[in-house]
Amino acid sequence: MFKSITRFDAFPKIDKNMQKSTGLGGLLTLLVAFGLFFLVLTEFGQYIHIAQKYEFLVDRTAGESTVSINADLTIAMACDNLRIDVLDVAGSSIHAKANDFSKTPVKFHTVGLVPVGERKSKSKLDVHRIVAEAQRKHREHADLKGPLDACRIKGHINVNKVAGMFHITALGHGYLDSKHVAHEVLTSNAPAMNFTHRVDKLSFGIDYPGLVNPLDSSLEIADGNFEMFQYFMSIVPTIYVDKRRTFGSVVLTNQYAVTDYKKIVGHETREAGIPGIFMKYEIEPIVVRVTESRASFMHFLTRLCGITGGIYVTVGLMNNLIQFFMNIYEKYSK
Ligand SMILES: *[C@@H]1O[C@H](CO)[C@@H](O)[C@H](O)[C@H]1NC(C)=O
Predict the structure, then answer these.
(1) What is the spatial distance between Cα 84 and Cα 95, in angstroms, rounded to a whole number?
(2) Residue 201 domain flag
(3) How much is the pTM?
(4) What domain range includes position 197?
(5) In a domain, 19, yes or no
(6) CA of 233 to the centre of ligand 1 (A)
(7) From which residue to which does the signal peptide run (predicted)?
């Protein structure tokens, strides 16, 4: 049995006496060893490196599905004086229903906010971390004890997946209401009009409590009673795929970029506008897919074999070629 298998031996064995070691061969072997060492090193580096691939796809679901706005904001005003509205370019205006957002009287405080300058830089995007964050539980900011001078608005609302606006205004300012909030008079504990606000959470789409969005933990202070805060947001649907995990490795989310302006409106400054918080959002018609993956071990092995074998054969050929020319040279120089 074993003997019959020896017939298939593809590796020729040449008798030691028939082989000749040359100086050239030795030199080339050293070179090969060096070359191999560096190549294997770079190859290993690439194997360890985790690649991030970006793909831009047209969002085929645009306009036919809905997106939810998840909010947790605290405004330094009494809940009774506030109204929340959502409008979109499709023309539907939704006066946010009572059950979409809960309004709770709380004490206004700035504990737990991160100063804008000290925010974690998101420049180094790490899909692995994002996917892990998305699955993490979020620590809610606690309400402090004290006079209930603010209103915490919390909840989510489903809106058409088109551009739209999310407004928080005082009753009787901007919309027709039976009530007209006085400008400066104190009602109970809260000033009638003070749009100072903290944003604890503002995200679009599936709510991943652990994921930090640009506006999370931010604070805006109103310098006047008639202050208008405007946010312009560009929403980019994003899919993160972490191939290193097998379970729950895809996160469907919406990143957004935001610019904000504030101005005091009314008679004092002769600026046009309505006091309140106005968030205008646009949804980009593309989807970004960020995939994180590492080459498989088999792939790495295959490449290693390829490199080793390739170099061995190539240098062997070179050796033969040089030897060939050297033989010719020797023949004719005699
Ligand atoms: C509104 O409330 C905040 C926080 O309580 C305060 O710092 C700010 O001065 C107030 N603004 C006005 C115009 O009263």
Answers:
(1) 6
(2) yes
(3) 0.73
(4) 63-234+257-285
(5) no
(6) 25
(7) none
Distance CA 70, CA 251 (A): 16
Provide the number of structural domains found in the chain: 1
112 Rama sector, left if φ>0, alpha if ψ -120 to 50, beta otherwise: left
Measured in Å, residue 223 CA sits from the centre of ligand 1 at 7
Please report whether residue 300 resides in a domain.
no
CA distances from 114 to 118, 151, 197 (A): 7, 20, 14
Residue with CA closest to ligand 1 atom 13: 224
Token pair for residue 171?
A: 């009753």
Q: Is 2 exposed, middle or buried (0-12, 13-18, 19+ CB in 10 A)?
A: exposed
- Shortest CA distance to 79 belongs to which of 144, 141, 148? 148
Q: What is the pLDDT of residues 228-254, one digit of tens each?
A: 999 999 999 888 888 776 666 888 888
Pocket probe mutation, ligand 1, options 75, 111, 194, 226, max atoms within 8 Å of Cβ: 194
DSSP character at residue 274: -
Do β-strands 286-293 and 150-160 pair in parallel, antiparallel, or remain unpaired? unpaired
Instruction: Assess if residue 72 is contained within a domain.
Output: yes
Q: Indicate the DSSP class of residue 99.
A: T
